[in-house]
Amino acid sequence: RASAPETLSRDEAEERAQILQDAAALKQLAVDYLHPELAVVTTDPNACGRNYFSRPSAEGNDESQDEEWEQERASILQDMRLMKQLAVDYLHPELPVATSDPTAFGRNYYSR
Question: How many whole angstroms from its chain centre is CA 102?
Fold first, then answer.
């Protein structure tokens, strides 16, 4: 009869469950990719990590290079600040533009 609920065969039900499981796994992978700030959760007790950059024998850990590293770090951070400001300016065109050039001017041809 037409009003009877649709029933799935065993193969169709298993395939549907597999598709839903794959979709859930892909969604979790997308969330992990889009949010790197989230902590990684593992259930493997043998999983461990080691930071090779902060160990005493790591390259560049002597104090003679510290000042050079700090200058380089400050330069990189300054570049990142400028890039962030450029990205904010690009993503938010509604924000006003500030300039220090007295010869810069513009004309709005749309609201004359």
Answer: 39
